[in-house]
Amino acid sequence: MNKANLINTNAKDRYDEYTELLFKRDTLEKEAGSILLSYNQIFGEKLVNNFELKIECIKKKKMLAYCQRCINAGKKIDVSLMSKKIEEEMQIYNYELQRMIADNKAAKEAVTVPTYRLERSKKIYRRLVKKLHPDGNNKLMENEKLKTLWDEIVFAYKHSNVDKLEDLEAMVRKELEKMGEDWLTEIPEDIEERIDRVISQINEILNTQPYTYQELLIDDEKKNAKLAELEKEHEEYASYLAELNDMLEKILLNGGKTIWRMSL
User: Fold this and answer.
1) d(CA 29, CA 35)
2) Which site among 45, 121, 195, 259 is 20 to 30 Å from 246 CA-CA?
3) 119 shares a domain with 104
4) Which residues contact residue 147 at a Cβ distance below 8 angstroms, ignoring those fewer than 6 apart?
5) pTM of the predicted model, to two decimals?
């Protein structure tokens, strides 16, 4: 084998390694999603309940702070204005709560996918990664049809929809036949930098949440400890909220006359 062929062979091997790393990264991201789903199935309801109490505590603290500012300034407490202002400030917390509720609902309704379908979807996706992954083939971005197909492929893979993946693979092959496949086998000049970048992304997935929840999910002792921790947290929030409610009701009493009495 001459030097030119040796260089081409090495470059091809590195590109194959790169596409395998892309597949591994995407598969780990998919697994991370499944881990998060399992995490929410076990802890989701308690997490939502605790967060509801937490944001109620935040709301009451903001109301107390508002009242104190009025008192310091010698102003009468305008409950209507206070409520409007606090509700605006609480929007970001309420949005997060709605997201958690939606995630919890999705986890409860999730259907387990048979192992053979998971493996089949991986095989199809690996083939498509080698041909089509936009991180490996910049020219993909020049073809709107392929871009659309790729988005559908990613969605189908995340949901282990084997039937859809098979259909999409056939559509990709047909589209590539029209174009010729040679341009998809070009080796990027920055292949080494790409490999390093994907390896870094893989390590980040493996060492951050939700992937790190996996250890918790497979260890019953740690799982039970987490449940106990959430129960304790709930009790603490409930106690703190009662304390804040009492403080707020007292501060809204002026000379024995109730300006506004809270009710929960």
Assistant:
1) 10
2) 45
3) no
4) 134, 140, 141
5) 0.80
